[in-house]
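Problem: given the chain below (117 residues), write out its structure.
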Amino acid sequence: QVQLVESGGGLVQAGGSLRLSCAASGRTFSTYAMGWFRQAPGKERESVASISRTGGSTSYANSVKGRFTISRDNAKNTVYLQMNSLKPEDTAVYYCVVLVGGTPRYWGQGTQVTVSS
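Solution.
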């Protein structure tokens, strides 16, 4: 079992930046690929970004490519999502996930990001 706690969400104007953090419990953090998903009102959850166990490989949804950066610090059991040039359509609840076989296995409770126009 892995517990995930997100932080860093909030209200920001369009064009602004936020950095989300996700702290994971347990001593096996470095053995998991990690990711961020989001869910906007009335829409299905979608994958935003993912990162390999070592951080050497990352991937992004086309909608955030070039604006968002995922990173991790295995010494701190933490994964980050740096979000720049935010748009109103980025408004959503953002979830940190543990990926097993490319599929989310564990989810955090989510953190709200609201981008005003």
